[in-house]
Amino acid sequence: MDYRLRALLEPTDATGRELRKIILKATSSAGRGHIGPALSILEIIRCLYDSVLIHDPKNPNLENRDVFILSKGHGALGLYAVLANNGYFDLSELETFCKFNSRLGGHPEWHNLPGIEFSTGSLGHGLAVAVGIAVAITNKQQSNRRVYSLVGDGELAEGSIWESLLHGAKHNLDNLCMIVDFNNMQANGSLDNVLKITDIPKKLISFGFKVVEINGHSINEIKSVLDFKPRGGRPLAVIAHTIKGKGIRISENSPEWHHKAKITEDEVELLLGSMY
Amino acid sequence: MRKTALNTVYELAKSNPRIVFIGSDLGHKTLENMQRELPRQFFMEGISEQHIVGFAAGLAKEGFIPFINTIANFFTRRALDQIIIDVALHNLSVKFLASGGGMVYAPLGPTHTATDDFAHVLAIPNMNVFAPCDAIEMEELVINESSKSGPSYIRFGKGGEKIVSNDFRIHKSPYIKIQGDLSSEYAIISTGVLTQMAIDAMNSLSSPIKPFVVHLLKLNFLGETSLLEIIKGRKKIIVIEEHQPIGGLFSQILHYFHANRIDARNLDSISLPNKFIRNYGNQNDHFNNWGLTIEVIVEKLGA
Fold first, then answer.
1. What is the ipTM metric for this complex?
2. Residue A121: its chain B contacts at CB < 8 A?
3. Any idea where the domains of chain B sit in the sequence?
4. ω before A60 within 30° of 0 (cis)?
5. For the whole model, what pTM was predicted?
6. Interchain contact, A167 vs B86, CB within 8 Å
7. Alpha-carbon distance A211 to A201, whole Å?
8. Per-residue pLDDT tens for A194-209?
9. Considering CB atoms only, which of A111, A117, A167 is closest to B55?
10. Which CATH class for the B2-155 domain?
């Protein structure tokens, strides 16, 4: 069975459903939000913070922590839900999403919220910063620290990503992991229709990365691949096959739910009712 | 000037392992000593300016102090988004060493002439913008900036400039420097290497029209109260700049006049034009063409 079908058929568990409810509550409160991207990456971020990253919600600046940068900053709601669930801030704060004095904007801001390593939103930035951090960590001989950057498949259209890939390989950054949220869907529609990008694994291998493909909604697969040991001299690229809007039938594979600037209470009820 | 800046970075890096140098695809053997002796602090990263700026931000986030060097436009035009978001938004200590300020690269055409760089970087919150006038001032600045937090943009001249900064008097702020008699009713305000022309213009004149020269090493001076007493009430002030009139030194001075309610009727300027310059030649050819000459300065002063 191919990865996409497995990702589609992957059931969500109780934690997954709870996190999705948190996200929907935030969008209900704000009347807006990037629902599809947040649900696409939710299992990846959840696994990172629950099981993979060395981090401390009570000490977000922990000296020897791993670093995670959400390059596709529009997935912020997924990150907020997981950070709150890990105790970085209270879950109730999700209800302030996008409000004037909120710490939770439509894209994550490092100076607002503990746990956000870097502000993102403009695409094609996160991997370059991650490469810089990975080189810094290597220079400081902090051999156990790892750096993760999660990019969208649509984001791969940014040329800067490919610059950074060259550099990740040049510096033999085996402490670096780029995760591609590969749901084959962007704001306008499918990647194939907007800007086709073929053979992503082959491309990344040719750039000097070690490449692993996973079902991006399988907790076991995500954990086992992302919890890597920095060794071997090559950076890691994980192609996570995901479903945009995963876990809610009507939002799955639907560009309509990539982003909405106006979401009504009725629509939120509809989404909740469509959750599985 | 560029050689001095880069060598200063190298000297600083010898005793501070957190100081690193990043180049794009700089000339053969650039800082070869540093590359050989301090390989962990030297990065020649290829023609990938957007990446390099983000890369520098990542290093700075982990406590390093990156000095990056490439041609001015390849920072302010090609990598502006990265400068704003990755560096300035996070207030990281990345130091941009911008080669070829103004018309230095005149023979290479409008892709390389940096006539709008100040406009881009002055609009960025947290960014400190500098234009030294000679190699000595450059060396002092690089040393100072290596211990200051936050981002900086440092514009280079052509190189080989005459040393004039030894004769400056500091006026309260280390970034406001004076040559000449402050009791004069005439003043020339300048930044960068054009300050050399301002000094020559001053020296070509005699009292009572002999002006004094204000060299503004740092272009973020809107909060500098000490500038007010220097420029207020003068009979004539000429601002000269190697930049288009929008968003550079003259714009800053106009803001300063307005913010301090100074009568600007006696203020005049000589700038490059707000258009794409289609001619080549050299830097001096353009100075002559656009009125950045001692003769025009003297004429505008009313002598």
1. 0.95
2. 85
3. 2-155, 165-301
4. no
5. 0.96
6. no
7. 6
8. 999 999 999 999 999 9
9. A167
10. alpha beta
